[in-house]
């Protein structure tokens, strides 16, 4: 499928035909569109999202790095780290396996002075779009002469028919931090969404999201945690870049390494986090 460099509205790579739509922005190496041929959009995007330098995008796949939320101190800014609001360098884009491959690079030359995380680093994001699967591969390299520790998450917003009907399977028996109740618990059976839900599961496995209309399968590698989030009513109303009634149409399923599962790399070491979304 032909693709082009676009400024729609941020610079990036896009392939858009009546059949299918793939899109990624240089800003945050942010995948913002994946509509496989014959399908409705798989990624959700708020109608209220910002699309400008220095601001996060509300939808698609924000890349959270090198910390998650406010980080291990609870005070780090910007939220979810600087990677998602920094323009990454487009390394190459090509057709591959009937789809589109896009590779981005991030490094100190692009991230600048970061007193909260003052390390020499390089990150690469390889995105593979096809009509069968969306694959995201985030590799982090320690380019420093000292070890460093980081958190990461592929903060994936999935479009669902009605989140109140969603059943998430694959987390049964997993321990999780319930960030709403501020307590740990163990998952019993499928995850259903009946209120604000913000959980960090200790799980390396695949999950299936069934909204009664479509079943999506999310697999991952190099990930100790799966984050599940829906803001529900009040949190949605409190976010200026999130429509008050939009919460029913999305669920975040995030391959992550956060909290006690943050990654420590020695000089020269690399770590790769992979998340793949497909139809179950
Ligand atoms: O991944 C869930 C979460 O950490 C929630 O706590 C909520 O803050 C969400 O991320 C969105 O964060 P953002 O900074 O994009 O508004």
What do you see in this structure?
The chain is mostly beta strands. It contains 2 helices and 22 strands. The strands form 4 sheets. Strands 6-7-8-9-22-18-17-12-15 form a 9-stranded antiparallel β-sheet. A 7-stranded antiparallel β-sheet has the order 5-11-20-19-16-13-14, with no helix packed on it. Strands 1-2-3-4 form a 4-stranded antiparallel β-sheet, with no helix packed on it. Strand 17 (207-210) and strand 18 form a beta hairpin. The model has no long low-confidence stretch (mean pLDDT 97). The structure holds 6-O-phosphono-beta-D-tagatofuranose (TA6). 6-O-phosphono-beta-D-tagatofuranose (TA6) binds at residues 56, 69, 79-80, 155, 179, 198, 227, 229, 252, 254.
Short structural description:
With 280 residues, the chain is mostly beta strands. The chain has two helices and 22 strands.
């Amino acid at each position: 499928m032909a693709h082009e460099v676009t400024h729609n509205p941020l610079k990036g790579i896009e392939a858009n035909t009546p059949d299918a739509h793939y899109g990624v922005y240089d800003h945050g190496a942010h995948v913002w569109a994946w509509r496989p041929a014959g399908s409705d959009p798989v990624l959700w995007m708020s109608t209220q999202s910002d699309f400008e330098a220095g601001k996060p995008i509300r939808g698609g796949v924000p890349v959270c790095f090198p910390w998650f939320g406010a980080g291990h101190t609870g005070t780090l800014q910007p939220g979810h780290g600087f990677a998602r609001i920094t323009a990454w360098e487009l390394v190459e884009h090509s057709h591959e396996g009937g789809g589109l491959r896009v590779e981005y690079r991030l490094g100190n030359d692009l991230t600048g002075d970061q007193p909260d995380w003052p390390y020499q680093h390089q990150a690469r994001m390889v995105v593979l779009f096809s009509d069968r699967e969306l694959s995201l591969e985030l590799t982090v390299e320690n380019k420093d002469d000292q070890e460093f520790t980081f958190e990461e998450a592929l903060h994936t917003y999935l479009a669902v028919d009605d989140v109140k009907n969603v059943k998430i399977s694959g987390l049964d028996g997993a321990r999780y931090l319930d960030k709403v109740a501020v307590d740990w618990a163990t998952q019993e059976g499928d995850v259903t969404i009946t209120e604000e839900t913000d959980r960090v599961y200790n799980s390396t496995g695949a999950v299936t999201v069934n909204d009664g209309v479509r079943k999506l399968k999310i697999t991952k590698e190099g990930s100790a945690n799966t984050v599940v989030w829906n803001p529900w009513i009040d949190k949605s109303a409190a976010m200026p870049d999130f429509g008050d009634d939009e919460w029913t149409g999305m669920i975040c399923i995030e391959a992550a390494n956060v909290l006690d599962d943050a990654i420590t790399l020695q000089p020269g070491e690399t770590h790769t986090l992979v998340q793949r979304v497909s139809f179950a």
